[in-house]
Design brief:
The complex is a heterodimer of chains A (257) and B (208). Helices cover 25% and strands 29% of the residues of chain A. Chain A has 257 residues and is of the alpha+beta class. A 6-stranded antiparallel beta sheet of chain A has the order 10-1-2-11-13-12. In chain A, strands 5-6-7-8-9 form a 5-stranded antiparallel beta sheet, with helices on one face. A two-stranded antiparallel ribbon of chain A has the order 3-4. Chain B is globular and about 50 Å long. The model of chain B has no long low-confidence stretch (mean pLDDT 98). The chains are: A alpha+beta (257), B alpha+beta (208).
Amino acid sequence: MEHSFASPSGHPQPHQRHFNPYSENGGTILAIAGANFSVIAGDTRQSEGYSIQTRYAPKVFRLTDKAVLATNGFAADGNMFVKKVRQRLEWYRHAHSKDMPIRAIARLIQTMLYARRFFPYYVYNILGGIEEDGSGAVYSFDPVGSYEREACRAAGAAQSLVQPFLDNQIYFKNQTPAHGTSHPAHLPLDHVLELVIDSFTSATERHIEVGDGLEIYVVLAKGSTPQVLDRWQGVTEMTTTQDGERMFVIRRNLKRD
Amino acid sequence: MSIMDQNGGSVIAMVGKDCVAIASDLRLGNEALAVSSNFQKIFPITDRIYLGLPGLATDVTTLKERFRFRVNMYTIKEEREIEPETFAHLVSSTLYEHRFGPYYVEPVMAGISKTPSGGFKPFIAATDLIGCLNYAKDFVVAGTASSKLYGVAEGLWEPDLEPEDLFETISQTIMNALDRDAYSGWGCIVHVLTKDKVITRTLKARMD
């Protein structure tokens, strides 16, 4: 049968086809900076609408020995973006014989995102790692490159569930310290890990796009001891060089319903 | 933007050990413009039942009066106070009467009910705008900050909290959720109900 664009009057009508280059793949990411460490976490469920595409699609990626990037939003864009950032970091290594510092990676990500101002990577990025001065750092970005260094940030499907909880537990918002005392500026590593796990179990409980698995990257500054990690299960060390920063991944299960 | 978000506002209710708590913000707005910082949306129904009505402000005012009328009629006819479970069904059927032209509110109820053996049992419930009841063992939320309330409550709430701890939990939950919601805030109020008294406190919250 002939396909024509005839209108009821018999005259041909213009007809516009439409292609949508974006989709949303759910999931949530989260990063918290400590005094001399940084924790970057993400769930591993990848979904489209009400369907689960896979229960294991990593959203958190190691960039250098001391920088980790978490991406959330449109997974295809996220993976492509990480690939391009890694390529730029390799070129930097070849040109300068060292890893790019994290604040420089943050600025690089901004320019790379803004370069696509009018056809953006549909991705929210959170960069975590260790600064040159040895302090833990978290940088968060919007899809077109606005960025800020913070102590903690949640992004993705369950951002609205997790961020106010973090405001309360990390920044001690709406809490008054007892007389003559003050709130700590940075929390210890094991406490931070507990909060990350609680955040994700809560998000899993109440958000359908969050669940399946949890990957927590821990970056420790030079010279700090990883003893606290001994009491944690499912820890894998990813450190590549001696006497530098050390990197670990903690893999856990989340509810699959 | 939904009619439900026109005036803003949020309510949460939580269960504790032999007690319940219900809290709300005090904002009334016209979309982004704040109009009042003392708009009550929680109403005492009996000494042991409190009702929160977040949603379209005009319907909040109408329904509060309607429920007062219907509860008064019940009290006169039955010659006794209404029980929380019964009141929940009254709310549900009142809203379902308007199934195809609903009131734009999502009621949240908290109460202490009497058991046949003479004891007391905490009760919370919420409905959607057409009266579909949701009983929960832990907490119920509604309003423009509902997703934030879910997130914080899921992280802070634990079973069998004593009245003072329940007060702290619900207060921290609502304040931190409200601070991330542009349509709720401008102060909040908390009621903690036990079998023999109600503690009402207005919180010193962020006013921006």
